[in-house]
Amino acid sequence: MELAILNQQEQLQVPETLHEMMRRIVMVCWRVMGRHGSPEVSILLCDNQQIQRLNRDYRGIDEPTDVLSFPQEEMGAGEEVIPQMPGAPDELVLLGDVVISLEKAQEQAQAYGHSFEREVGYLLTHGLLHLMGLDHGTEEERRHMREKEEEVLAELELMR
């Protein structure tokens, strides 16, 4: 697995335990989704101002959000996501980037009454599942994605 974590915010401390949790989440998501090979993903940790710029520039929504996903392969409307099929178990599969506003994660953790780590874990899981082809545009897709999120979070004991 290749994982790059870049912290571009200065408001919150990012302990090594959070980095370790992120590594575990990537591996659990990968396994739960039944993927082969070894995932390569980058995670950008930022503040509300930076994620608002990205949200505006890439989605046309000029407000901060909690998580954004940028798949390595952009899919057109109606195209099915077909992950790269590696030839060997250790061959890298480029997934893309997940951007998380730690400022928004802290706000939401307080609002929902659970830990900051649980909120960051949920946001990363959600973003990774998007990179692996899941979406929540329809009720059926939303339900399937929620099931996978809960499966990952339960295994990592990141419950509400």
- Label the overall shape: globular
The H-level CATH homologous superfamily, spelled out, is Metalloproteases ("zincins"), catalytic domain
The CATH architecture assignment turns out to be 3-Layer(aba) Sandwich
Q: Order of strands across the biggest sheet?
A: 1-2-4-3
How far apart the termini lie comes to: 28 Å
What is the mean predicted local confidence, pLDDT?
Answer: 92
Q: Give the amount of beta strand, in percent.
A: 15-25%
Number of DSSP helical runs:
5
Count of distinct structural domains: 1
Describe this structure in words.
The protein is of the alpha/beta class and 160 residues long. The chain has a single domain (2-73, 84-155), classed as Metalloproteases ("zincins"), catalytic domain (Collagenase (Catalytic Domain), 3-Layer(aba) Sandwich), CATH 3.40.390.30. Helix content is 46%, strand content 19%. It has 5 helices and 4 strands. Strands 1-2-4-3 form a 4-stranded mixed beta sheet, with helices on both faces. β1, α1 (16-32) and β2 form a beta-alpha-beta unit. The model is unreliable at 76-80 (pLDDT under 50).
Brief overview, please?
With 160 residues, the protein is α/β, with parallel strands linked by helices. It is built from 5 helices and 4 strands.
Which features would summarize this protein structure in a list?
46% helix; alpha/beta; Collagenase (Catalytic Domain); globular; 160 residues; four-stranded mixed beta sheet; 5 helices
